[in-house]
Amino acid sequence: MTDAVAHVSDRYRQRELVASSFFEREAERLAELCHLMARRFARGGRLIAFGAGAAATDAQHVAVEFVHPVIVGKRALPAVALVNDVSMLGAAMVDPDGLFARRLELVGAPEDIAIGMMHGVDDPGETAVAVALKQASAQGMLPLWLGVDADVDAGTTEHRFAVASDDPFVVQEIHETLYHVLWELVHVFFEHKGLLEDRVPGHAHDAGRSSFLYPFLAEAGSDPSNVLEQVMGSILDKVADVTTMRNASVDPPALVDTARLISERIGAGGKVLAFGNGGSATDAQDLVVDLLTPPRHMSSVPAISLTNDDAIVTAVGNDVGFDNVFARQVIAYGRPEDVAVAISTSGGSRNLIVAVEEAKRRGLLTVAFVGYGGGRLAELCDRVHTIDAEYIPRIQETQATQYHLVREAFDRV
Question: 404 is in which domain, residue-wise?
Fold first, then answer.
């Protein structure tokens, strides 16, 4: 246990060093990229995201952030995750290397933005992502590559962002902050008058309810260099915010104890049932991927994501009510030796509360990763890891660190 606690503590420090180094180096390019993406969106382009394994859940997370922005008043921007289509499974068996490229040929357009992600040199999607980005370039799309420091062929992709870490969990967390920043600042650029030459003329920029996040934009006028400089500063501020949030919520002994309790259930023949809504649904899926197909040095753990089956979720939601979409699956799959893991930014989602209540009735160990100080979920669950904050992107980034470190600790307790 002592070794595991020391390991978790060291991993927190590692994240801070990697994140600060990466974003200090890339802030200027990221600010410029946000501007380029906003121009593509203004001309009718879409964001098309893809990746394999855990990176597939990032593709889903990217899509939901752009289509369903959490900042009130921000527009929905078109985004799609290629991995969401079940036809991709058959395509992967026929042509694994051309998996994403062939789909881009069919659905891609010149004004689109293609973002391919991988978390390490052993990533199952390495070749497929590289081939797809070459295809995106050939079609006139804006190709973005999120990967690691390695000699990986991403074609002629100009916008390459490589994280200097051999830990796929750390790489993924840096990527999550990166695409959250892209989402946050693309919205700002898109609404700032004078910066998008293809934009339909409108009234002067008003940051509205999000003005507290970007006060400089209401005053910056239409000078691109001025706005880009301010956006660079905003990027570094956001990275500092997530570092502060991680440090404020760090509790290595608690994370290790949760890992121990889950491991005991797994050792008794149990499995993990994970669930959440929206971006937290993709985090639940990511946790399950990390359990079923972890990095090579970790053992596999049986797990099910209750967010994955569209037919079950929509059937229960339509016939019984959305409050029951996870509880019904707990009834179907849950056993006393199992573990229910709820991931939530608010702690107040009714369908998560109902599912946890059902899990407790059936004797499951209940675990929550939750923001907003915990909410109702914190009162219900056996093990709770809270983040006392209310801004969703930073909460999600901090939660990813928490459940990744619990996952790592499984083999050390």
Answer: 251-412
